[in-house]
Structures are given as C-alpha cells and as structure tokens.
C-alpha cells in the first residue's frame, strides 16, 4: 500500500479495522483491452477489506470515507460505517425522542445492550444518530486544541430485554449533572409491563397508597433488594383473558429507586405476577416458556426531570408502547389510557 497514505503497518491495520479500505476486484476479461476504463475493469467488484480478505493479482485499493451528514464526523467516530446495532436501533419507532446540545433521550429497542459488545450496542450507534453540539459551545464538549468531541454516552442502563427511554449525555458536564439527578432521585421514570395474572394489593398496601398526577391511585411495594431500599408504585391499567396464555394484565409502574431488576423482582416475589417473557423470574411452566419466544414485555415508557443545564426547564418524554404489547393483549392502542 502507498506508504504516503499508510506510513506504518499499524495505520494500515487501523484503516482495515475502521472500514476505510475498499478492495477493487480486477475483471480479468477486460484487463487485456488498453482502452478499457477503470470503471469497466473493476466494475462493481469492490468489497470492504477486513482482516480475512484475500487479495488477488490485479486487485487495487481505494480509500473510503463518509460524507458528512450533520452527525458526529468520521474523524471522531473513527469508523466509516455505522455499527450493526445502528440498523437495529433505527428499526425502533421514533428512535430519537428529544435532543439538544447537552442531552438526548432515545428509544432503545429490545435485545440491545446499552453498553456492551463494541460496535454492537446502543452506545456505538449514538454518534450516527445524534448531532454534535454547536462548535465552541462549551469547553466540556469540545477540546479547542484538536476539536475532539465528547461522544454521546448513556447516563444509565436498561436491561438488554427492556425497551424504552434512555437518557444520553453529550458532554462531560451533562454526564455529571445527569448522574446527579439519578443519585438524588430528582428524575422520574415509569414503565409499562404485561404480567401473568392480575396483581392484587398487599395486606398492608392500604397504608401505603399514593395518589399521583391525574388522581390515579397506585399500590406501593416497599421491599428492599440486595439490602438496599427499593420502592415501586404500581397500577393495573387493563386485564384481559387470553385464549392462549390465560389472564394477562397491563401494569404501569413508577420507580422510586433503581435497583437491579427491581420491577421484575417486585412483581414476581411481592405480588406473585411475573412479567411475560421474563426467562429469569417467570417461574417456568409450559405457558411461561412458550411466551419467552415473544421477548420480554417491559418498556420504560416515560422519563421526566428538570433539565440540569441552563434554565432548568421541565423535560418530559413519553414513548408509545411497542406494537407487540397490544397484539398480545388483543386490544387497540387507542382504547388504552395509561
């Protein structure tokens, strides 16, 4: 390869890793013609090089780059092409629900880790769907020395099988401020889920009922998890009898704490109504195992907080539940008020 373009083996390897090299396969039938144009010789045989690409006599290289499109530039993402998770993410209805120069709220699809395998998680996809902040807006966003952007990162995580709202920070300052919202519980998250059976109030639940906006009464689960306080508010939105899976309930939950698998564990162990598709806590059984193929029915459908930067205005985002929720319940979306 041209030593002026790739002066070292290390740079060549990085170019291959980031998808910058295109191998143009020679068309041997045409190479004998002196008048054949380069387009005719190499036609459409270009392939993006990787570590296992085998080269043949007459092959040539071309350097690929991404046309700037308003999202984070290739100079910052390193990779020319979006990661595999990008296409999974874009398959979600309304993937980006809110965005400004400091933060964003995205709609994570099911079966995608927030932070996991490199180039196959939500974090890897974010620079390809979000816009960098205005140039020079704040020192925390851009290094004035080399114009290095702080790449967007999730502030918190959802389980791989949980879909819904994820708060994203686009600067170091935003990450600090948003993390503080979680630490002080000045951020409200709510979830919708479908359970086997209809949850019933606990024996002492009458002493702990909470009235929230809209005058709707929620039961309270106040039961520690892993030795730490854990509180979940819950309300049954709708109950149906499925001819295949029996009694199912759409349940709305509001978290007052954020423990590992909190909703999943509270609904299972405190109310005895595990979440449909939850292969860790559904208890097994023929019906439970059958529904696992449908995925888990848990969605973080709403997030609300005061913007941590600037005028502290209220940010409130609510996303539509995935279509599979209504399909399983056999009801129309417009007939449900959460």
Question: Helix-strand pattern, N to C?
Answer: HEHEEHHEEHEEEEHEEEEEHHEEH
Number of helices: 9
Q: What structural class results from the helix and strand content?
A: alpha+beta
Helix content: 10-25%
Would you tell me the overall average pLDDT? 87
Shape: elongated
Radius of gyration: 25 Å
Instruction: Classify the beta-strand content into a percent band.
Output: 25-35%
Q: Give me the count of strands.
A: 16
How far is the first residue's CA from the last residue's CA? 61 Å
Give start-end ranges of low-pLDDT stretches. Answer: 30-36, 38-43, 136-145
Instruction: Report the sheet with the most strands, covering strand number, pairing sense and barrel closure.
Output: 11 strands, mixed
What labels describe this entry?
single chain; 338 residues; alpha+beta; eleven-stranded mixed sheet; three-stranded antiparallel sheet; 9 helices
How would you describe the overall organization of this protein?
The protein has helices at residues 9-17, 38-42, 74-77, 84-90, 122-125, 172-183, 262-270, 286-291, 323-329, and strands spanning 21-24, 46-48, 60-63, 96-99, 103-108, 142-143, 148-149, 153-154, 163-169, 187-196, 210-211, 217-222, 231-242, 246-255, 298-306, 314-318. A hairpin with a 5-residue loop joins strand 11 and strand 12. Strands 4, 5, 8, 9, 10, 11, 12, 13, 14, 15 and 16 form an eleven-stranded mixed beta sheet that branches. A three-stranded antiparallel beta sheet has the order 2-1-3, with no helix packed on it. Strands 6-7 form a two-stranded antiparallel sheet. With 338 residues, it is an alpha+beta fold. The termini are far apart. It is elongated. Helix content is 19%, strand content 26%. The longest helix is centred in the middle third of the chain and has 12 residues, at 172-183.
């Amino acid at each position: 390869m041209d030593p002026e373009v790739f002066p070292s083996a290390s740079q060549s390897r990085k170019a291959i890793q980031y998808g910058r090299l295109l191998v143009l396969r020679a068309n041997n039938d045409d190479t004998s013609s002196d008048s054949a144009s380069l387009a005719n010789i190499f036609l459409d045989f270009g392939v993006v090089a990787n570590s296992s690409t085998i080269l043949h006599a007459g092959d040539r290289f071309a350097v690929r780059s991404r046309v700037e499109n308003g999202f984070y530039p290739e100079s910052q993402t390193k990779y020319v092409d979006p990661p595999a998770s990008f296409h999974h993410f874009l398959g979600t209805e309304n993937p980006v629900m809110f965005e400004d120069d400091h933060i964003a709220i995205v709609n994570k699809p099911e079966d995608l880790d927030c932070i996991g395998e490199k180039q196959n998680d939500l974090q890897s996809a974010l620079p390809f769907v979000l816009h960098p902040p205005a140039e020079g807006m704040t020192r925390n966003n851009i290094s004035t020395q080399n114009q290095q952007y702080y790449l967007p990162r999730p502030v918190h995580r959802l389980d791989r099988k949980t879909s819904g709202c994820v708060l994203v920070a686009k600067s170091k300052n935003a990450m600090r401020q948003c993390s503080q919202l979680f630490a002080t519980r000045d951020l409200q998250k709510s979830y919708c889920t479908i359970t086997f059976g209809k949850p019933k109030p606990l024996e002492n639940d009458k002493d702990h009922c909470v009235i929230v906006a809209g005058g709707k009464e929620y039961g309270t689960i106040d039961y520690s998890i892993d030795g730490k306080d854990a509180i979940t508010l819950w309300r049954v939105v709708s109950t149906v009898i499925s001819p295949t899976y029996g009694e199912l309930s759409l349940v709305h939950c509001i978290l007052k704490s954020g423990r590992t698998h909190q909703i999943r564990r509270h609904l299972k162990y405190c109310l005895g109504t595990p979440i449909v598709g939850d292969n860790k806590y559904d208890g097994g059984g023929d019906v439970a195992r059958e529904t696992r193929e449908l995925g888990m029915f848990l969605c973080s459908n709403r997030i609300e907080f005061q913007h941590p930067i600037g005028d502290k205005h209220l940010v409130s985002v609510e996303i539509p539940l995935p279509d599979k929720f209504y399909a399983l319940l056999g009801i129309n979306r417009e007939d449900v008020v959460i």
